[in-house]
Amino acid sequence: MLIFRAAAVAALLLFTLLPGPARAAESGIPPLTDLDGRVLTIRGWNVEDKAHHGEEALTGITERHFRDLAASGFNTARVLFFWQDLEPRPGAYSSVYLARIERILDWAERYDVQVILDAHQDVYGEAFGSGGIPAWATRTDGLPFEETPGDWFAGYFQPAVMRAFTHLYSDADLQQAQTDMWQVVASAVGDHPALLGYDTLNEPMGELFEGEDLPTAAHRLESTLITAMHQRIVDAIREVDATSWIFIEPTPIVGEGMPTGLGAVRGERVAYAPHFYSTAQEYGGDYDPALGWVERYEEAVALYPAAQRMPVVVGEWGPLDSSTPNAPAYFRDILASMSRFSSGWTAYVWCYGGGYCAVDPSGEFHENKDATVQPYAAAVAGTELSRSWDPVARTFELRFRPEGRNGVTEIRVPGGPTLPAGGWQLDVRGPVAVSESAGPGGARVVSLTQRGRANGWVSVTVSAR
Predict the structure, then answer these.
(1) Where are the domains of the chain?
(2) pLDDT tens digits, one per residue of 373-424
(3) What three-state secondary structure class fits 18?
(4) Angle at 426 (CA atoms; ends 371, 329), nearest 5 degrees
(5) pTM for this one?
(6) String of b and e for 63-83 (b: at least 16 CB within 10 Å)?
(7) CATH fourth-level superfamily of 6-31+42-373
(8) Whole-angstrom Cα distance, residue 435 to residue 413?
């Protein structure tokens, strides 16, 4: 989640007014897969506890989060954790904090939700009154930091914060501390059944040179310091966890339709995890389809993963205010876009309140956010011919050929507060055996298994009654 202000806003809003492409490019982006080769689709939300640090860290995340996610058919949670809470002193890792991460994974497993662990930072970390990187890993060279009331994101452009990122990326001892931290995490939870993977660092930022505009700085930082950081972390995790997915992020500037400057990051099972926020909406405006922001983002975001043959999962997206006049068009357009270039998404944020929260304290979706709830193929064991979702008719369709691949095709059918009055009607045709398991809140998981060596296409239709 981010809110652009001041000079950063001006630079990015200028870019958003540039002409966009007529349509998104054909991407050639590979899908996310599991170890059996099944094609995976990610549908979920971020889960966080930014209110508690130290001894109370992560206590704001409860079993209810995962039960309610599963009830609405979601299969993934991007769970935020903070380095400052894991390692409050150099080399002193909190066993209590690691145990709480494992407890979260246990809850996720209970409700068949997979977890991406995100090393989160906002305005670098605790030295600047936020959460993320420890104070002991913060070096500012005495440069100033002043808070801007009502504009937390402006802190990224304070001299002390920018210099702290430079030291994190460049100082050998801080590089080692960061990779050591990741090895501790991966060693502790890498074999947990609920773990999907790791997000190396949320929204990495850095230092602008004098006279340098934000897009130029972002491209320079991504192509040099941030690419190198990602590579160090990937290499370190792979020493202790050979199979979990590792998600790497660009700077948040890509949200305005700018191609990333990231270079190649070597390694198996590495995925690209950009965020998809609109400066105009974060700045208090409504979504305007005529500006072509979604189309421009889609065109630009596909370039890097297509070139690197890397799957895409959008790690954060969503409006602060989902009740604006054009909010229905926003959800329609952004969900359709992500279905074209990505393997899925985790929206921001699953909490019980106002603002960015998905639902209110009673668990009812805020206006228009129920558009995120839909049936989908969480895993396909075979070759897809087509899949589609019609939000008006509320109908999901999938056609695929099993072709003897290992594993089971899994269809998630949501329940929860958006369950249609007549439920969901399921129609499956083709050479597969069908079984179902019930989840919380009326949710269902439909499993399709190939019948022996039978060949042929399988069609699946799930529609609201």
Answers:
(1) 6-31+42-373, 374-465
(2) 999 999 999 999 999 999 999 999 999 999 766 789 999 999 999 999 999 9
(3) coil
(4) 15
(5) 0.95
(6) eebbbbbbbbbbbbbbbbbbb
(7) Glycosidases (3.20.20.80)
(8) 13
